Amino acid sequence: MPKPIYQIVAVARNGVIGLNRKLPWRIPEEWDYFISTTSGGVMVMGRVCAEEFGQGMTDRDMLAITHDTDFSLPGFLVGHSLKEALEMAQASPQPGPIWICGGEQIYQETFDISSRLYISFIQREFDGDTYFPEDWRETFPHELSRQDYATAEVPYSVCIYGKEPEKV
Ligand SMILES: NC(=O)c1ccc[n+]([C@@H]2O[C@H](COP(=O)([O-])OP(=O)(O)OC[C@H]3O[C@@H](n4cnc5c(N)ncnc54)[C@H](OP(=O)(O)O)[C@@H]3O)[C@@H](O)[C@H]2O)c1
After folding, report:
1. Pocket perturbation via mutation, ligand 1, pick of 13, 51, 130 by most ligand atoms within 8 A of CB
2. Which pTM does this prediction carry?
3. What confidence tens digit (pLDDT) does each residue in 42-80 have?
4. Paired sense of beta strands 156-162 and 116-122, if any
């Protein structure tokens, strides 16, 4: 059985996901949710996101995509195209899903092959230079779960959307 492919992202009210190659916010609880949700799976991300991590983690496989054939990062597997990265991810011994972790172009390019979107709505606007593709609601029309964290310092909601109205 191929591993399921899910996208995971945190998005500000104005669609921003990144600024100057970093997250525009610091919300430790939301970051912890991201790390625990993706544990045991395979994280696939662009080279800029991988460099933001700096090094891989041992409870999962982490895969960076780059055109640079000399690129390496401790604890990361490296793929040189999306296709190659996804083949490597499917071959991983990790039991969990493949998690598409961005950035912008990689989200857009994997809309058609991802069955779920794990999206955290950060309930504020932020300055940014990287955005989540606006057309995601057409791709993932069904809200499968929602948890609001209204009293957090920066309020946010953690949601799962799907292509089909499945139980999660
Ligand atoms: N809020 C969130 O949940 C979230 C999630 C993800 C990212 N972000 C933010 O978004 C920003 C990073 O995202 P980004 O979109 O700028 O960059 P990115 O996707 O992390 O990295 C872009 C790079 O990935 C490589 N790449 C992408 N597609 C490729 C392909 N098909 N084949 C080969 N290589 C490919 C290229 O690397 P080379 O130039 O080396 O060839 C490209 O320059 C940061 O600010 C980060 O914090 C936020």
Report:
1. 130
2. 0.98
3. 999 999 999 999 999 999 999 999 999 999 999 999 999
4. antiparallel
pLDDT per residue as tens digits for the range 126-165: 999 999 999 999 999 999 999 999 998 999 999 999 999 9
Query: Would you kindly state where each structural domain of the chain is located, as residue ranges?
Result: 1-15+26-126
Q: What angle do CA 66, 69, 70 make, to 5 degrees?
A: 105
Mutate to test the pocket of ligand 1, among 22, 33, 51, 66 (most ligand atoms within 8 A of CB): 66
With a CB cutoff of 8 Å and minimum separation 6, the contacts of 149 are: 29, 30, 155, 156, 157, 158
Q: Was domain 1-15+26-126 assigned CATH 3.40.430.10?
A: yes
**Among the listed residues 144, 121, 148, 116, the one whose alpha carbon sits nearest the alpha carbon of residue 132:** 121
Q: Residue 47 Cα, ligand 1 centroid: separation in angstroms?
A: 5
- Ligand 1 centre and the CA of 148: distance in Å? 28
